[in-house]
Specification:
- The chain has six helices and four strands; from the N terminus they run βααβαβααβα.
- With 158 residues, the protein is of the alpha/beta class.
- Strands 1-2 form a two-stranded parallel ribbon. A two-stranded parallel ribbon has the order 3-4.
- It is globular.
- The two termini are 14 Å apart.
């Protein structure tokens, strides 16, 4: 697609990485500043009219709201004030699959700070996207070309 790509894991503060390396799941307090920083990156790219893909485990609805609206999204249902930046238009791609498939892929990663043991906590935290969120769900049981085609079709359909 020629879009700019960011891996959200590259933007975790050192404290978050250390916590995960020790097998300690992140909580909202750990994740919110990280998500706000990611929102700022997405806002900057949007302002530059640069289409962007962000690989990110935005596990909760609140996390996805922060990616769209920044820190102000934390205050639920806070109306936008005149002159504020409007919310970003983001298509969330929920990669859905059985825990064993995801575990197999995590086991193959080398040099990553998140150990396989944290996968269970991620499933416990997960709030799959639901309407009215702007999302598609893609099965990880499909082949990589099928997954990419489904995502690209959704993007091109707007």
């Amino acid at each position: 697609l020629g879009w700019k790509f960011y891996d959200a894991d590259d933007y975790h503060p050192l404290e978050n990485k250390k916590k995960m390396e020790e097998g300690i799941p992140l909580n909202d307090e750990d994740r919110i500043p990280w998500l706000c920083a990611l929102h700022d990156i997405l806002r900057r790219e949007d302002t530059s009219r640069q289409d962007t893909i962000l690989a990110c485990s935005a596990l909760k609805k609140m996390y996805r709201r922060v990616l769209i609206g920044g820190a102000s999204a934390i205050e639920s249902n806070r109306p936008e004030k005149p002159g504020e930046n409007p919310a970003l238009k983001i298509l969330f791609v929920h990669l859905d699959g059985p825990k064993d498939i995801i575990a197999g892929r995590l086991e193959k990663r080398r040099g990553h700070f998140m150990p396989l043991e944290l996968l269970h906590s991620q499933f416990d935290t997960l709030e799959p996207p639901s309407p009215p969120e702007n999302f598609i769900t893609v099965s990880l049981e499909k082949s990589l070309p099928e997954i990419l085609l489904q995502i690209e079709s959704a993007i091109l359909q707007g």
